[in-house]
Amino acid sequence: MIGKGTGFRRDKGAVGLLLTMVLVLAAGCATNPDGTTEYKRTAIGAMAGGAVGAGAGMLIAGRGHRGTGALIGGVAGAAVGGGIGNYMDRQAAEMKRKLPDAAIARQGDKLYVALPSGILFDVDKDQVKPAARDQVGKAAEVLVKYPDTYVTVEGHTDSSGGADHNQKLSERRASGVRDLLASGGVSASRLAVRGYGETDPVADNATPEGRQTNRRVQLEIRPNERLKAEQGQ
Question: Which residues are paired to 222 by β-bridges?
Answer without folding.
Answer: 150
